[in-house]
Fold these 2 entries.
Entry 1:
Amino acid sequence: MTSSNSDFWKTLGIYLFGKAKKLSLAFKKAPTMKELMMVYYAEAKSASLSGRKVAWITSGGPVEPLIAMDVIPVYPENHGAMIGASKMGGGLCEKAEAMGYSNDLCSYARSDIACATVNGGPIGGLPRPDMLVCCNNICGTVLKWYEIQARYFNVPLFILDTPFCHTGYSEEAARYVRAQIDEYITFIEDACHKKYNFDKLTEAGLLSFEAQKLWQAVLDTAASRPAPLSAFDAFYHLALIVTLRGTKEAVSYYQNLLAVMKDRVARGEGVVPGEKYRLLWDNIPIWHRTRWLSNKFASHNACLVADTYTSAWCGVTKYIDENRFMDSMAEAYTRIYLNIGVDEMAKMVLDMIDKYDVDGFVLHSNRSCKPYSFGQLDIQRIVEAERGIPCLMIESDMTDERSFAEGQISTRIDAFMEIIKERKKETR
Amino acid sequence: MITAGIDIGSITAKAALVQDGRILGDKVIFTGYNAAAAGKRVYEELLAEIGVTSKDVAKVVATGYGRNAVAFADKTFTEILAHAAGAHYADPRVKTIVDIGGQDSKAISLDDKGKVKNFIMNDKCAAGTGRFLEVMARAMEVNLDEFGSMSLASQAPAKISSICTVFAESEVISLIARGEKRPDIISGIHESIAARISAMLARVGVVEPVMITGGVAKNAGVVAALSKKLGVPIEVSPHAQQNGAIGAAILAAAL
């Protein structure tokens, strides 16, 4: 049997598995994250059989215009998180370094670039893209990363350029980004060889807006004492708001999750037994160490009740006008957390400190993510001056497990918790 | 009441015995590869030297990297808290501590009561630590104990620009090859450590009086370079290397 033949049977198997699984979920009241993600990846990996197109898109890119055209969005960054959580980042990064990519580059980019050439990682690589959509609202690395992949797969690339918003949102920026949305629509029409369906976009926009509000409501439940969920839970439940916002599945998933959390709040059930200390987390999770960190903080009766990362997918609902989704999404996508000035970021952090009533602030200085880590020292200083709570900075990397020194980080966390405990004793 | 503090560092293990605010004695040995055995040995040897038994000791607190390996400890604290307690005991006026140990360095700020306000530790890099000095002393073929005093004779410190231990070593080797004077190279090494440490200190804020603790405080060259860089006098802890163990014994008394 030739290799393309065996590929066909493999894809057919995945296709039938996805179909069967989706059918069985239709009878289920509340499908789990794992089940939904299984169907999602099965559909994406067998898209060639169902005649659907696959687009790779950056985590902060406007996905609703793709959903409206039945294109399956696939997220190399979500895949990067999976690679990290499976502790496969170090190996793939080494592979990328052997290909000539510097170890100073983002580990999501390194993992993805390496993975595409070997179909490795926890799910045997991502499905081949028909098009790439890159929005630079999250960083500048994605430009080169997506150009490399566009060359590798020989597929069209759309770049949505969102100017950095140091303060406010200028009229020029608004016009500039809005004009690109029209170009984006044309790009999708060309890639799909069919007319754009604007009714479907309105529908996807409404569902996306609904899911974002629900996700915020889920995160808000952590303001209760004890918190019914921690940032570590949020890191897990985040997957759908990233990958499937704009779909009915995401909305019903978060409706169910919100009900579960509200129920826990009503019963006074906390996720960390004997919660005494409440902390705020900054930056992308250390995917390969979430369990270790969760246990480490819990051993001090500390709960990471909120984080700046997962709230980034619902932090801009104030800019969205659900009745004018296409116009307002330009502003919403441009003004996300990573594309605003440090003063505005610090203000959001201070608001979260008050809202979730936290005792300390943990900052992950992430070797991979320059835009997220660059202003952290200033934000830390502002928090110390304005709220006077202890702050801890730990140096690591989101996906590359070679950048984690357990002994050092363990001592830092212990010392940080000693200070918090001492402070709480004094104020009591 | 007699209490004990055990501080297991990456290079040395320290023990101290304190009775009602008075230091009975202390001891330093090499940690080696077995932190648990080193903790036990340094404690037993100190008890024998002072002439007391473990039954006479009311509480034991362990600190340092190997703190969790000390099975006989009643409680563990991080070296941040232990060094703060030790420095506060040595001089209650101290507001800022620089601790330079074998594999890490830290800057600690204290409030009026001697409580830790904030701390910063070095990142995952041995530059600016005791291990860095050991590597350099070997490259220079100078005994570590003479390293400090030798640098004080320097007229024109050499410039060491690399902040990585491995690269700095090759930089030093090329300076030797160029025929730079030994005291000048050593002085340059101390200045490079001072530059790194002072950047860390700036993050917690330098409030006088400043005290230096940890094994590297024994090096007069580092202390002089740091004092010059910061522009403030630096008090050397009277028991710099044992400061963490003494602090742990003080914390044990408050359990």
Note: Strands of chain A lie at 54-57, 72-74, 131-135, 157-160, 277-282, 302-307, 360-366, 391-396.
Entry 2:
Amino acid sequence: MSIVLVICFFVNISLGSVSIPTKEIFKSLIGGIDNESWEYIIQNYRLPKAFTAILVGSGLGISGLLMQTLFRNPLAGPFVLGISSGASLGVALVILGSGIFGGVFASVLVSKWSVVVAASLGSFLVLLAVMIVSSKVRDTMAILIIGLMFGSITSAVVSVLSYFSSAEELQQYIFWGFGSLGNLSWHELFIFFLIYLVGILMAIASIKGLNTLLLGENYAKSLGLKLKQSRLIIIIATSLLAGTITAFAGPIAFIGLAIPHMTRQIFHTSNHKTLLPAVFLFGAIVMLICDCIAQLPTSDYTLPINAITSLVGAPVVIWLLVRKRKMFF
Amino acid sequence: MTKVEQHIVLETKNLSVGYASKKEANIVAGSINIALQKGQLVGLVGANGIGKSTLLRTLTNVQKPLQGEIYINSKSILDYTSVELAKQLSLVLTEQIASKNLSVFELVALGRQPYTNWVGNLSQEDLVVIEKTLQQTNIDFLREKKCFELSDGQLQKVMIARALAQDTDLIILDEPTTHLDMYHKAYILKLLQKLAKETGKTILFSSHEIDLAIQLCDTMIVMSKNEVVSGTPCKLISKGTFNTLFPEDLIAFDEKTGSFRVRK
């Protein structure tokens, strides 16, 4: 599977609006290409985009896996906890709210970094609220429902905001909502990667606890698992991954939900020691493929990545529901 | 040798169990004094709603006692860390496991969690214990099966194997025979008796199979409205304890056969 990932990676780099011969791409990676504009395109556009796709795909897949195991619910995902809707609210407040809150801030606020900060802050705040509530509620299913409620509250606020904002602002918000992998500089990618790494490390540290949770919370407790502590680590890992991904790449749907299921079906296991690396690779591969499709090879247009992932994800969800009798996780 | 037999694994002192709300404590059962010896099979019986589950939940540290203390191997249950306790006490609950996509081997191996390293790798010793457990519970032939492929009786054996693999002095089972047919009820309880004898573990289970329990248990704990009594089945029969279990209008305990008869 790692080989497939490497192949997808190169295929992804070689596709784009400007067609560049494969030979030249390898040359530019080693660092000996004659055509300067080609080199620029590859090094500053396609490479970061491919790396972003890997981070986004694997990160969303893993956060979905963590949520599904923690909530013992095959339909859980980073969106269900309200993390992504929190990020959306943050961005909506910045983009849509700037007009309402006065023109002075508008120009300062609507920059790229403010969107990133707002999205991170939004997802973190929603997460914090969910966590405060979850410390009072024992039942994990209740937390799931509370997360959904937070999600609908934030989307309602977004609706109200969009009602009062101008068409231009609305357009900007909607474009963010399409999701994009291609707008990151190396510098941004580096910060993205650091936060991502913390999330992944926390997920790796939770492998044992996740396997125990497959038995249910009471059994997990009887096996000596510190339930509250591991629940906290898993939730923080998820929010770090899903929060930053949403901040940098927009709300990308379905990957978090669909990838863990696909991986379970392929590998026929629920053991997280296998699942975690498998979801990592599979998520990255699917995201690279989705991005290739979004490029519409040999055309000048780039489709919104969110539409492509939904086109892949929605049939999977339907397929899962139809097959529900045989769905185990 | 007698000293080993006298080893008390679980002891309660003046224990009261129930639910405490802010205003008042709702005592379900009080002044419970029991002492369970090493290697015994202990049956806990009582009518529905008498507080068997509450007692088991308290003994397993899921809920706090209202009063009194619980000692496992002479150490208060509250003084154990969660991992330490997991090495003393294992459970088989009535609830379904969350994921049935696990294979039998994987499920039994999860019983080794308190002993494994941070990522849960099985050591050579863990593998030896797991193999032994699979043999002892006669489920070796099922090892590669997924849990959703098993019958209720098989799954219960696997859950017992998992608790056994946890290698604790005390195993507590909450109604291990519900949903099983007559044969498998007897089979499971007989298996528990064999395991208690072979492994020297103390096994405590709650059950409604009073006649089976009388035949198989070393000690029984009988919960009735007014008191909690424990002793060997013979003693309890001669004391007439089983007559206090249920209201007497419908069924009565027959001392000769050791079972309940419907009044005609």
Note: Chain B has a mean pLDDT of 90.
